[in-house]
Specification:
44% of the residues lie in helices and 12% in strands. It has 8 helices and 6 strands. Helix 2 runs antiparallel to helix 4.
């Protein structure tokens, strides 16, 4: 929410009259389905920006996803967990830190997140950006160019016995 609000204050998502009307309809649909519209959503949706996290109801998440997929919303801010699972046609993924909480982002999770940009069958190209400081240079290089961590299935032979 904080990132979405910050972006709403610094960028302009130009929109046709038709898209502006679709954004007004989106707000009305959220209100109709949930009984209210969150203050931040009411502020940022008209600008083509939203957030997506577990604090939204299922109905709100569905409407936001539909609006983003349909081009009504231009920017969708979400947590790293949802970024790994959101299956939407993103042209660009921006990761604002090399950390998730107090832990460093792993290469596997980084690749999962940036893989949202330019998804096969959803868009033909994609870009990803990760923000960091000079002190993060080694971590950034490892995320982008490092060796993949070993992956082990949790469906091992013992789990599959009937």
């Amino acid at each position: 929410e904080t990132t979405a609000r910050m972006l709403a204050n610094i960028i302009t998502c130009a929109a046709s009259n038709e898209t502006q009307e679709k954004r007004r309809i989106l707000l009305a649909r959220i209100k109709a389905e949930t009984g209210h519209v969150d203050t931040v959503l009411r502020e940022i949706l008209p600008m083509g920006i939203s957030y997506h996290h577990s604090g939204l109801t299922g109905d709100e998440r569905g409407l936001v996803e539909e609006a983003f997929s349909g081009g009504v919303l231009s920017v969708l801010c979400c947590t790293s967990t949802l970024a790994a699972g959101v299956n939407l046609p993103a042209a660009r993924v921006v990761i604002r830190s090399v950390k998730i909480g107090s832990s460093l982002l792993t290469r596997t999770r980084y690749l999962q997140m940036v893989g949202r940009a330019g998804r096969t069958g959803l868009s033909s190209t994609g870009e990803s950006f990760i923000l960091g400081s000079n002190s993060d240079k080694k971590v950034l290089e490892e995320l982008v160019f490092g060796k993949m961590e070993d992956v082990r299935s949790c469906l091992d032979e013992q789990s599959l016995t009937l």
